[in-house]
Each structure stands twice: as C-alpha cells, then as structure tokens.
Amino acid sequence: MKMRKVVSVIGAGNVGEHVASLLALRGLVDVRMFDIPRKDGERVIEPVKGKALDIRQMLAAIDIDAKVEGYTVSPEGEGYEALEGSDIIVITAGFPRRPGMSREDLLEKNLSILSVICEKIKQYAKEAIIIVVTNPVDLMTYAVYKMLGFSKRKVMGMAGVLDSARFKTFISQEVKVSPKDIHAYVIGGHGDEMVPLISISNVGGIPLKDMLPKERLNELIKRTQFGGGEIVDLMGTSAYYAPAASIVEMVEAIVTDNKRILPCSVYLEGEEGKYYEAEDVCVGVPVKLGNCGVEEIINIPMLPEEREMWRRSVSSVRKNLKVVEEMLHARSTL
Fold it and tell me: Which of 18, 183, 190, 329 is catalytic?
C-alpha cells in the first residue's frame, strides 16, 4: 500500500529542480522529476537523473528519508510511464521568452509542449491534482484545464503565492517587521496588472494603510507588480528560489489537508465568476486548498479602486485568451 504522496515535477530547470529539492527537504512526499535530455557536444546527457541523484545524496548527508527519482523523457512524449501513481503534478516545463520572440510565439511554443504533457497525464495520472507554473501562467492554466478536461478544482496555477510573498517582503523591509506578522494578498493576473490588496493587508493586525502614506504604498504596489522584472534585471534570468518555495507552499497545503487560504490562478465561472466579473477565465483569487485541491473560492471584499484595478487585470488576461482559444481549436481539428 502506498503511504506517502507522490509529487511529479515536469521540467527540471531552475524552478523545477528547486521545487524537487525543497519538497525532499520537507520529507513529506516522494518526488519524481521529468525532463528531456540535452546535447553536450557529441554526447547526449541526462541532467534530470544527475539532479535526482545529487538531491538523494544531499538527503543522505542530513539524514532525511525521501525518495527522489529522475526520468528522461522525449519531446514527443516517450518515457512518461512513471507519472502513474502521482498525487500531484507540477508543470514547470516550457520555453523562456527570448529576444525577437512575440508573446504569440511564446504561447504557441509552450502550448505545444503542454499539449504533449497533458496527453500523458490523461494516460497515466487521471486522478492527479495539477499545478501549472509555465508562463504566461494564467493562460497556460486555462489551456491545461481545457486540454485535460479535469474538474476545475484539480487544476490551478501558481502566481499569487509568489506575488504575495514579494509584496510581504517589500512591506517587511519598509516597516522593519518580520514577514511572519504581515498578512497581504495579491490577486489578479500574474503580470504588470496584478492587484495588491491594501484594504485587507495588515501588520500584526494594524491596517497597512494606517502605517504608511498613500504615496509610499503606491510605490510598494508598483515594485510588487514589476517584482519579476527586477529579479531579471539583477540576475539576468528569471527568479527560481521564491517561485519554488511558493509552489511548495501549495503542495504542502494539499498534502497535509491543512485548509490554507492561498491566492492561486483558477478557472472562474458561475457564482464565483459573477462575483469576480470573470467568466470562463483563469486568474488569481484566494482559494482554500486541501487534499481534494481547490476546496473553495473565497469572495474577498474590494474597495472601489481595487475593484477597478481588478477589472483591468482580468481584461489584460483576456486580451491574449482569444489567441489561446484559437490555438486550442486549431489543435482539436487536426
């Protein structure tokens, strides 16, 4: 009988390998890593197997008992059999945006990758809960949800946990208080139009708006909205420590069934869609996570100015959603 949950991480780049190592260090789950091989001159190498072995040796050094396995897969979908038995699947695989590449180019390339992955998930892991990390995450979460046909409670995107962590970091630096005592939510699309909610943010129970002048709050909001770009400018690459930790928070909430409320990109329709004025779209809202996935979507109150920011954020996501729908339709008719 399987006692420990199995988390499969598809894509073992910077984010994926850090997700795997952090999960292993928590000792809560067994981890399976999947990635394609690469060329090193004339030689074909399998980095995912080396990374898994390295993590296992790290665990042995600090007396943690967890299984970590690496599996090499092909871009065409060969080698995914080990997905069988996965309780949670984290998808980080995808192309980064490169110079000269349009957003549509990026969407097409990543949609192509995810379509192969979704077919293999349907084949080997129909009961798994899916966490999408591939960018642009709201659009890719929508695409994965549509391609899989799973319950909307079992497909979610990681964005708001990371954005909220960035917001908390900047508040902590500003007011010189531990992030542990700061409560802040960021909702909306994972992009420049994300919505840090000042009205419900507090430091040790004291409303944030009572601690800082409006001008300084606006500066913190802007820094949060462009937090990913700041990392890229400093490192020359996208962030991976904080995104990985954010994914692990979501995984742990599901595995331990501790009913945490975390902002995630989820499919909105019905009553939730009416409240958030966002039907047939995936976008970040606070949700209660448990061992069934998204157990409840929380209707969070917003001030009029926050509601207007929210509408702009949803509109920003919708601009490219039509492109995704057209691509999905084209694939379905092949």
Answer: 190
